[in-house]
């Protein structure tokens, strides 16, 4: 979940909250009549920095490092963010930032690797 002031966006089964949040910002900018070349600047004005938080079912802070696909989008819009991983908060500007990894679903669908894909493959060949 991303939270900033009163605006928050939650995960959906298909896309992570990070990318949905950015999409929402672009949509709002367009609605306000911001021209394409002004959208990045508009987003920066409205979103100084994203705080990416995820919680486990029992309410503990969970690892929230953006996945590779979200990180690409965040980089594209040059957005600063803070996320939680390995029991610490990291910033997009940190030099020792851990590498983003694809989610298990992305591994399976986009990168065609990982346990989930292997499991799928077994099911597919069995049918
Ligand atoms: Zn993501």
Q: Overview of this structure, please?
A:
This protein has 127 residues and is α+β, with helices and mostly antiparallel strands. It has one domain. It is 39% helix and 19% strand. The protein has 5 helices and 7 strands; from the N terminus they run ββααβββαββαα. The strands form 2 sheets. A 5-stranded mixed sheet has the order 2-1-3-6-7. A two-stranded antiparallel ribbon has the order 4-5. A hairpin with a 2-residue loop joins strand 6 and strand 7. The longest helix has 15 residues. The N and C termini lie far apart (38 Å). 14% of the residues are buried. The model has no long low-confidence stretch (mean pLDDT 82). Bound molecules: zinc ion.
> What's the SSE pattern?
EEHHEEEHEEHH
The rounded Rg comes to 17 Å
Structural class category: alpha+beta
The total beta strand count reads: 7
Instruction: List unreliable stretches of 5+ residues.
Output: none
Overall pLDDT level: 82
Number of helices: 5
Strand order of the largest sheet: 2-1-3-6-7
Tell me which ligands are bound: zinc ion
Reported for the largest beta sheet, the result is:
5 strands, mixed
Gross geometry: globular
Proportion of strand residues: 15-25%
Q: Compute the separation of the termini in Å.
A: 38 Å
Name the helicity range.
25-40%
How many domains make up the coordinates? 1
Topology:
Blueprint: E1 2-4, E2 7-9, H1 17-31, H2 39-46, E3 49-52, E4 54-55, E5 61-62, H3 68-76, E6 80-85, E7 88-91, H4 104-109, H5 115-126
Parallel strand pairs: 3-6
Antiparallel strand pairs: 1-2, 1-3, 4-5, 6-7
